[in-house]
Specification:
312 residues, alpha/beta, Rossmann fold, six-stranded mixed sheet, 15 helices, 36% helix
């Protein structure tokens, strides 16, 4: 990491008023070397339930975020609402609607650092870099979710905050695991796809699968059939009989009226009779957790998964 003192505003005309600031050079997930403030003061993150939730949890000064439009027509931040109770206007402004980059709105927030998801914003990198230093975050780059989170913490100058959060998480995992069976068995992460009559099998599923494996669950072989570098694969209904996992974990969206019963009903339509031959169903070990609480790659989301095993 390279550090130097510069007049940062000379390089960032849209950012804060001119002031001598310490800067450093970091390499983002796409290999770009970018000069960034040592401790950014006006961060704009463009993906709500990935980069925004992490930056917020670390205590970064997030002034703007990407968001989505709810059924009521109002913008909101997915998972920021569910995990932290934060809405637009609570010191965070709308930077762009997901899928609709708004460079003018972003520039008006005078960011000194922009963090964007590679899968969303790579075509707009040059445009964003004309506003402020921009770092590209890649969620699926071969590293674990926590390794990627640690990278983002370092970019933000929040490595100590990450270490403290991780230590708290690991302590709770050890506590919960100590009160569980030594070998809790195997699991599979999956979702029904009633529209196509198929099933999604996941290799990883955000914080949920991280916690399950930290608690000692082993993976059903079908999860490892998902190609490396891919998060999921589509499986035909006929293959559901090959699921030998002791537990099935799924997620649902309560705002759509979904719950475990709805998902199991969808599986009835896709694979009639599955309740009679899947070991997890016979053992009563089919679980569905609220998606926007347990998918994001944050310690708060991991805590939500732990709450299933250790209600607070």
């Amino acid at each position: 990491m390279k550090r130097s003192i510069v007049i940062l505003a000379a390089a960032l005309p849209m950012a804060l008023p001119a002031a001598a600031q310490e800067v450093r050079t970091v390499t983002d997930h796409m290999g770009f070397e970018v000069v960034v403030p040592d401790v950014p003061q006006r961060v704009v993150t463009l993906n709500d339930w990935t980069t925004t939730v992490m930056a917020h949890e670390l205590g970064a000064n997030v002034v703007g975020s990407g968001g989505r439009v709810g059924s009521d027509g109002a913008p909101y931040m997915r998972s920021m609402r569910e995990l932290y109770g934060v809405e637009f206007g609570d010191e965070i402004a709308l930077a762009s609607i997901h899928g609709e980059l708004d460079a003018e709105r972003i520039a008006a927030l005078r960011p000194d650092l922009i963090i964007a998801l590679e899968s969303d914003a790579m075509p707009y990198r040059a445009q964003l870099a004309s506003i402020a230093p921009v770092l590209m975050y890649a969620a699926e780059n071969g590293q674990s979710g926590l390794e990627n989170y640690a990278d983002l913490a370092e970019w933000l100058g929040k490595g100590a905050a990450f270490d403290a959060l991780q230590a708290g998480y690991e302590a709770r995992v050890q506590d919960v695991r100590g009160r569980m069976p030594a070998a809790p068995g195997s699991y599979i992460a999956m979702l029904p796809n009633p529209r196509e009559g198929t099933i999604y099998i996941y290799r990883t599923y955000g914080s949920m699968t991280v916690v399950l494996e930290d608690l000692g669950f082993s993976r059903d072989p079908m999860m490892d059939a998902v190609p490396e570098g891919a998060q999921s694969m589509v499986s035909s209904a006929e293959l559901i009989g090959g699921i030998t996992a002791d537990s099935i974990f799924m997620t649902h969206i309560p705002d759509r009226g979904e719950d475990l019963g709805v998902l199991m009903g969808q599986l009835d339509e896709i694979a009639p009779g599955y309740r009679d031959f899947l070991p997890a169903v016979a053992a009563g070990n089919v679980v569905s957790l609220p998606r926007f609480h347990v998918y994001p790659p944050t310690f708060a989301a991991m805590g939500q998964v732990l709450d299933h095993f250790d209600p607070q």
